[in-house]
Amino acid sequence: MLREVFESGRPLTYVRSSEEQRVGSVLREVGLRLLPSTPVPVWTWSLTEGMWSDDEGSIAGTHDPRAALDFIAAHEQAGIFHLKDFHEPLRGSPEIRRRFRDLYESCLDRQKFIVISSPVRAIPEELERSIMFVDLRSPDRIELAALLRDEVQKLPAAGARDDASDEVLLQMAGALSGLTLDEARYALRRALATGLRLGPESMPALLEEKRLLVNRSGFIEYIADVTKLGEIGGLEYLKKWLLERRKLFQMRESLSNDIVPKGILMMGIPGCGKSLSVKAIASCFELPLYRIDMIEIFSGRHGKPEGVFVQACRMMEDLAPAVLWFDEIEMGVTATESSGEQGRIFAFFLTWMQEKTRGLFVAATANRIDLLPAEMIRKGRFDEVFFVDLPLDDERIEIFKIHLLRRGVEAARFNLDELTQFTIGWSGAEIEQCVVSAMTKARLEDRELTADDLIGVAARLVPLSRTMREQIDHISRWAFERAVRASPRRVV
Ligand SMILES: Nc1ncnc2c1ncn2[C@@H]1O[C@H](COP(=O)(O)OP(=O)(O)OP(=O)(O)O)[C@@H](O)[C@H]1O
Ligand SMILES: [Mg+2]
After folding, report:
1. CATH code for the part of the protein at 229-388
2. By alpha-carbon position, which residue is closest to atom 16 of ligand 1?
């Protein structure tokens, strides 16, 4: 791929990859074969090491980005110049950008090629036209299968079968997709170290290793608990929508892009089942669920929020197919003091929603919905914006049944209808809490739960919606104009 870019004569390339070493070795390989007569040497630059090459060692005085560009400009022979993380100097200085643009001319037709590598795509606008962008994705299944075969031959002592068929290897490679080669090797060795043999039986261990590696990022979390659609009380419209879209999502490769479900935004009153619904989407679509923690991203612990957010989105594309959950999305898209950064994140998110791989279904949830910019909803590229309201009378009964059943209590024993009048304005979370308190009481008195226990607790509980009436009314009014209700409309 890179070789084709060079052969087409384009002197400036930007490679997005988090694997600098892999970029380096690809460039070396391209250098060997680029010209028929002699190999083209590869020069590498980083802010810490300056410019160096295998043959000529380090060049003094080239740590400064400007000096590195001067070195390239003055260089007479053919060469490939690999500039690591050069997007930062480009972004920071108009002078460097100018200088870099000038290099286009001085490299053109001289067999000099400049390659910037960076984990994020950050090409300054004025360079967009002269730079070729290449996405060096994580290794594909074929590359991973080759790695597996390699490892199998090296590790007979680990009990690995070296007769593993291509099909098994490809299947395992699929389990490792999304990891870099180093990570995949690491995951494989760890899985085999537990005494497993390479084959279908080691798949769960591989998946577990992958999960650990993803969690290590600190801002993406693999969510293991499974919720079935049936465990959600009410929200009939949302459920119906999901069941319809599931089929489209599963047929995604054969559909035109605008029909493939891309994602939903859910907002609503706390404790009414947003998080629960996201988990149910994953199980309904039969996909793994990953949660992006916006608070972590904005903590600054992992670097600049903008870069981390972009990185998280890219990492997720490699983990597709999956459901991707942005919890408290408003954190990332609302304007505060540092609104410049957030504006850019928002702009990135809008484009990304449009161009992301089909295998990712986005479920975004928001609590402080009034903080969401209007474009998020209008142009947010969501298929639907749902409002999860306080449950209606019969929805509350359904939620009671679900939580009783989950704790092994046969709900048919009770006449639950009486509870409707005691639970007006209650959230699902409060219903669950009521069931738990009533059961605890009965257990302490060493007897079976009765309907009176439930009613006793219910009569005393003051729901959040009463203490926070104004906020809740505000949320409902706001959502009324902008979102689709996740359950049938309340009759007033
Ligand atoms: N519709 C529902 N059906 C069944 N259980 C529910 C429902 N709504 C809420 N619950 C119960 O309340 C708990 C809390 O709900 P959940 O975490 O989904 O709320 P949320 O809308 O995400 O709230 P928050 O805004 O606080 O994040 C759930 O784990 C579940 O046990
Ligand atoms: Mg939640």
Report:
1. 3.40.50.300
2. 273
